Amino acid sequence: MLFKQNKNRETYGMFEILIKMLYVVVGIAPFLLTLINTGAYIFAYRHAKQYLIVFYLFTFLMLFCAFLCINKLPEKESKDQKKYTLIVLFVMTIFLRVVAMLIMKSQPVSDFYMAYDNAVKIVNGIIDPHYQVHYGTYPYWGFYSLTLAFIFKIFAPSVLVGQAFNCMVGAFTTILIYFAAKKIVGSYKTGIIAAVLYMINPTIIIYNTVLSGEHLIMLSSCAVIYLLIDSNQIQGTKEDTKKIFFKYIWLGIFMGVIASYKPIHVIYLIALIIYEIIFYIFKYIKERKQIRKVIIEIGLIFTLVISCKMVTALNQTILYNVMNIKSDEAFRIHEGYGFPILAGLAIDENGNWTPKEAGVFKDNYTGAKEDFSKACFQEVQNYIERYYDKYPIMFWQKFSTSWGRYGRYPESAFIAWSFYPTAIFDQGDAGQHPIIETYYAEVSTFLGQYYFLWMFFAFWGVISMLRGKINHGLFYCILVIFGFVLMGCFAEVQMRYRSILFPYISILSAVGMNDIIIKLSYLTSGIKRLLTGIRNRTEKDGDLFQ
């Protein structure tokens, strides 16, 4: 069996059909469409075609090394082997990122620069009025700036210190991916594959140099899925119920951390609530005699939401106190999600999506702050009534912005934010990084080649899930990815926002690669048996001839 199944977990009729339909939807969008767009670049674009030999060799070596290493590992993991595996994964993750950091010598720009600059000023006891206003509007950037300030107080205010902190976060993320994949799939081999795919991903390695809260979101996402994928089956004892409630408090804390660095925790919350309804609440209602368990599950959901909200409120309070921001003066445009949706659905006269229209609306808004979100939704309604026929094309444009499209260098956004020679507020005023000035096509092509392979394995992993029983952990990953796709259609989105999904895609990629390795093992075993049979027959015929 590819997936380890819990005997207490059974799939329920109509939900099984709906879940597998969701697999197909996610397999096609974004994975298959990404493969088509990126494949069109690396196989047809003139700057990329000359490097196809690199792609073929890398693909062969990756599968060959994975095939040899995974098949040589024992079925069960020993304690010593586990210890050495964790040490190697941790050290290699840091090594690759530190080497890239020292070679690139990248500097922060735009919002990344503002977070860094504000952190340095906080360490020096300076409260900048500009940042007071800015982080009163965008508190998640402000809290990341406080995180950097905390790190700088321990060590020293430096871009390298911030990037080194990212290296450590990346190493712990690799370890958590290993544990999460191992727990979900029930195979430590798949856990190793998932961790290695994340560890050596060049896009993730270069993005490590960017000072962004998304690195902490990736780490928290791994913690969420590791905590979630466990038996929530309520046995009825007080000790068991207490243990589950404590687990959901921790889940809420990690989701609150996600919310503090970017307001996308709603995707995780909705995915988890759907997960609870399908696999637990629906089952208990169906059994009829389990009303008490239904009440407990609803209580778990409330515990999760309240814990998340408390962490978010606490972090915002800390930010406001440190930055001397008065809550009644803050213009928190993300409350109610009106502004992100306006930024995501605003269209210019040519039918193109543009978040600039939302910025103009915010700058010209003169009403009460508490009515801002409602006004944004009204503006969205006006856009839809005016440009309803242009939205299908707009959704494709936005999808391509998130996941990559032909005619543009793959992973271009990650390159754009990762390579800057100087720290500066306006990236438009920064010069080109020497590496990108000389090797832009080569760097982009290499990132695109790995991205293609990565998404191919993920696509294979999702499709392979159609053949087996529903795996709860992988289904939760699919729900989060599906939620991100919807968010990309209806809210403001950039390609770099996809970085929050890197742990989930790595796990799905590991499932796909493991499935391919299993098939290769069957193939090689069949060939060996065939050759052995031919050799035995030849020897037998030779004996008869003599």
Report on the architecture of this protein.
This protein is mostly helical and 546 residues long. The protein is 75% helix and 0% strand. The chain has 22 helices and no strands. The protein has helices at 13-44, 46-49, 52-72, 79-104, 110-123, 129-137, 139-154, 159-185, 188-199, 202-207, 214-228, 238-261, 265-287, 291-323, 338-345, 356-364, 372-387, 391-403, 412-418, 434-464, 472-490, 502-545. Helix 5 (110-123) crosses helix 7 (139-154) and helix 7 crosses helix 14. The longest helix has 44 residues, at 502-545. It is globular and about 95 Å long.
Instruction: Please state the CA-atom Rg, rounded to the nearest Å.
Output: 25 Å
Low-confidence stretches: 1-11
- Per DSSP, the total helix count is 22
Tell me the helix content. Answer: over 70%
Note the main sheet: none
Strand percentage: under 5%
Structural class determined from secondary elements: mainly alpha
Number of DSSP strand runs: 0
Estimate the global geometry from the Cα principal axes: globular
Taking the alpha carbons of the first and last residues, their distance comes to: 48 Å
Mean pLDDT value: 85
Secondary-structure element pattern, one letter each: HHHHHHHHHHHHHHHHHHHHHH
